[in-house]
Amino acid sequence: MKTIVIDPGHGGTDPGAVYRGYQEKTFNLSIALNVQRYLTEHYEAEIVMTRTSDITVSLSRRTAAANAIDADFFLSIHNNAAGGSGFESYIYNGALAPNTQAYQSIIHNTIYQTASKYRVNNRGMKQANLFVTRETHMSSLLLELLFVDHPDDLALLRNSTFINDISRAIAEGTAKALQLPKLSSAASPVSSTLYKVMAGSFQSRENAEQRTEFLSQNGVASFIVPASVSGGVYYRVQTGAFSKETNAKSQVEQLKRIGIADTYILAGTDKSESPVREDDLYRVIAGSFRERKNAEERVNLLTAAGFPSFITTLDIGGLTYYRVQAGAFQEMDHAKALVQKLKSFGIIDAFIWSGSDLPPLPDSPAPETPEDKWTILGQSVIDGCQLDQFVRSVYPDAPQLGRYYRVYGNLYGIRGDIAFAQAVHETNYFRFTGDVQRDQNNFAGIGAVGGGAAGASFSTPEEGVHAQIQHLYAYASSDPIPEGVKLVDPRFDLVARGSARTWTALNGKWAVPGNQYGQLILSIYERMAEYTQKSIEIQQQTLQKLIQDLNQ
Questions:
Q1: Rounded distance, CA 33 to CA 25, Å?
Q2: What positions does the domain SPOR occupy (predicted)?
Q3: In the chain, pLDDT over 90 holds for what percent of residues?
């Protein structure tokens, strides 16, 4: 059996390339763990990792470990930075172990077959005097997958579908180069029990991707593993696999400290949750659109009706189509049942896609509900003092913040009065009965992801309102913030710009799962409007009486 050393670049005190809070070391580890998992599950090989967590490992320790065990191949996984875009690979520019150039060619080309589908630039096969390729005695290869400081490359590194695809390509290329035997279907993928740490399990891939993004920002590498549960598919977020249960428990405690309350350990194989290959799934597509906004409207409609869904993309003939996926199943009968439910609900363009055929390509607009028409961008209607009056009718000690919502709402073109309703919902009428405390001035729960995580803090109430409006602007617009305005939202750059144009489009984004998040905000806004209207009517009656008295 051949021994392969997988080396996730950097780690611990060495973050590698850093850009807008994203650290190369986290991407490296996430991809490397994915490659390890895929090789272990599909091929006969002994996989040794130079690190499996965020620890500091010197270059000499990495190469010495590989040399000590007389490994057959050393694979170092990195991402690039500082002026460029795309993928390249490196071998040593001096004397090489046999087959090194052949290995590079096979692995590089296999990776690029997948990367090219994402329009990744091929920067070529190169040679250089790099420490890990120079000091290892066996054939070695260093991959520079993408540039963390290039917007398009960074978007792919944040895309778990791309990470899974590119990791699989690395693994398949390595297996092909080294001619690894495939495991038989009856073979166990691991020789001993592994304790896998799961940081959540979700029916929606989008929610799983949000969790991996949050973990990445907290220095925890993770990847998504689809699992079959009672015929349906759940997307589990795995943050590690350990041979010792004590190490797995330590990882769980680390996750709980950053607010991941739903973490758990999966020992060996759970009979109720069997891993599945996404290529083997029957996906239920509830519409395919040329315009992303139409796909988003369809997702909003389905979510409100109790059908969790998310958007995937597919390139056909140079055109991008936005597909709304409402489920994925191992059994065709389960997929057919969901299609029938969707059609009964009115989604007549629902269909099943197995990945081997091309789906229909309609571009009809999605139906709208009245709630879906309320955009985040727009003008406020209710005055600041009226906002304060409404909330104090419920909680007399509520702070007077209405004027800030009007001022910053007007500055960004955001409906500040509805943003105020959002704050009412998040803070329970400014009583702060959840994880966020009053002195944090965090009126929208920014960064409060549950499990006791309190989220961001702001120096003044005004700054807290500004941060909320700015965060809404990130969702509602792809334009830069107004000139001369300070960036105060700590999570502004984590938002997919322009991904939620309406309040209901925040469902599952601002709050997870939050299937009715936007609807709840709008229902509070409706009560605010009714209260304000009644207050105005009472004031009008009082003024009319006053005028009558003055004229007598």
A1: 12
A2: 189-268, 276-355
A3: 37
